[in-house]
């Protein structure tokens, strides 16, 4: 499923959401939210094996390498992103990020039912 990760995340009023990355404030995009959530390490993950950390790295790398921002992802990759974003962020980021990711899943379901 193709997703445009350059999509800007907006609050309930339709305004861009500021996000601080490396001490720089930027307008949040799906790309920043997803990559940051993949790269962060939660307390319960400190003893996690290298394989799962490497898989997260590879998914973040896949997102970052897209010049156009559009990335083709599997259902499993989308589920992983949703899980990480949901764990990392407040509803302000989770809401618009899930709306974009869920919309892609919904469009695919609708195409399958045709």
Mean pLDDT: 90
- What is the total tally of β strands? 4
Helix content estimate: 40-55%
- As a whole number of angstroms, the C-alpha radius of gyration is 14 Å
Q: Please report which band the strand proportion falls in: under 5%, 5-15%, 15-25%, 25-35%, 35-45% or over 45%.
A: 5-15%
Give the domain tally.
Answer: 1
Indicate the overall shape.
globular
Sequence of strands across the biggest β-sheet: 1-4
Helix/strand order, N-terminal first: EEEHHEHH
Number of helices: 4
**Low-confidence regions:** none
User: Main β-sheet: number of strands, strand sense, barrel status?
Assistant: 2 strands, antiparallel
Which class do the helix and strand fractions yield? alpha+beta
Distance between the terminal alpha carbons, to the nearest Å?
17 Å
Question: What can be said about this structure in brief?
Answer:
This protein has 114 residues and is α+β, with helices and mostly antiparallel strands.
């Amino acid at each position: 499923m193709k997703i445009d990760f350059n999509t800007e995340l907006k609050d309930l009023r339709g305004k861009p959401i500021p996000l601080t990355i490396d001490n720089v404030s930027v307008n949040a995009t799906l790309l920043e939210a997803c990559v940051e959530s993949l790269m962060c390490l939660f307390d319960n993950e400190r003893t996690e094996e290298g394989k799962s950390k490497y898989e997260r790295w590879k998914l973040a790398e896949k997102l970052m390498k897209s010049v156009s921002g559009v990335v083709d992802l599997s259902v499993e990759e989308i589920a992983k992103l949703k899980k990480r974003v949901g764990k990392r962020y407040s509803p302000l980021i989770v809401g618009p990020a899930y709306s974009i990711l869920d919309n892609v899943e919904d469009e695919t379901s609708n195409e399958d039912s045709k």
